[in-house]
Amino acid sequence: MTKLYRVAVAFAALSLIGLAASGCMGPTYGTGKSSNEQLFDDLGDAISLKPQKQPDLAYQPRGQLVKPANVSALVEPEKNIASKDNPQWVESPEELRKRLRNEADANANNSSYRSPLAVSVTDGKTMSPEQQAAAFREARKIQDGRYSDQRRFMSDPPLDYRRVDDPSKLTDLGTPETKKEKERKKEAEIAGSGKKWWQVFD
User: Fold this and answer.
1) How far from 17 is each of 3, 34, 149, CA to CA, in Å?
2) Does residue 133 fall inside a structural domain?
3) Parent domain of 139
4) How much is the pLDDT for 193?
5) Among 19, 73, 131, 167, which residue's Cβ finds the most Cβ atoms within 10 Å?
6) 106 exposed, middle or buried (CB, 10 Å; 0-12, 13-18, 19+)?
7) Is residue 132 within 8 Å of 120, Cβ to Cβ?
8) Pair 34, 25: CB distance under 8 Å
9) Is residue 143 part of a domain?
10) Is residue 116 a contact partner of residue 103, using CB atoms and an 8 Å limit?
11) Helix or strand or coil: residue 126?
12) pLDDT tens-place values along the chain, 202 residues long
């Protein structure tokens, strides 16, 4: 009984070892070989000097084009409309500006011609030069942030922070740099002569 028990235990141990060894081999990916075995075979083929026999490929000739009995009945192929030759092709901004400039140069001596580049249209109405100047000043005012009537942008501070007692302070740029430079040069000349700033004519 003891001997039979030992044989069963030994057989079970060998079975477990075999299963573990087969599990270490890893998947074969349908090749019937483990990944290590396939790697060694590929390396052996790579360093082998004997030319490897390539499998014969069965190439089938391409079939002939089937043509109708009456070739003149075929429809003419449609032309590619996605090209600059198409009259409905969208004109780029650069091409539009170039065309308008050439048109303005050609009508330089025509007093009745008015270039679209010099005309600003708003709400379907042509603006006069005075209206264009006023619109430009208003745009510059908004660009410089010189407004306190409403918040036009999310980055604008609250209106209470933008109110000033004198609106002219918003446009006051201070003393020009050229004037400051002249004063600095004048003070430097007086400082080098040993005179005071009020002794200019002495």
Assistant:
1) 21, 18, 88
2) yes
3) 123-148
4) 66
5) 131
6) exposed
7) yes
8) yes
9) yes
10) no
11) strand
12) 566 666 565 666 556 565 445 555 566 677 778 777 888 788 777 777 777 677 788 888 888 888 888 888 888 888 777 777 777 777 788 888 888 889 888 888 888 887 776 655 555 566 778 888 888 888 888 887 777 777 778 888 887 887 778 878 777 888 899 999 999 988 888 776 656 556 655 5
If we measure between CA atoms, which residue out of 180, 174, 172 comes closest to residue 144?
172
- The CA-atom distances, in angstroms, between 202 and each of 133, 176, 190 are 51, 29, 11
How far is it, in rounded angstroms, from Cα 12 to Cα 6?
10
Indicate whether 57 belongs to any domain.
no
202 CB contacts (<8 Å, ≥6 apart)? 195
- Number of structural domains the chain divides into: 1
pLDDT (0 to 100) of residue 28: 67
Contact 197, 187 (CB under 8 A): yes
Instruction: Take residue 12 and report the two structure tokens written for it.
Output: 């079970």
4 belongs to a structural domain:
no
Structure-derived torsion over alpha carbons of residues 116, 122, 128, 134, reported in degrees to the nearest 10 = -120
Question: Taking Cα atoms as reference points, which of 171, 149, 167 lies closest to residue 159?
Answer: 149
Q: Alpha carbon 114 to chain centroid distance?
A: 37
Q: What is the DSSP string of 5-37?
A: HHHHHHHHHHHHHHHHHHHHT---TTTTS-HHH
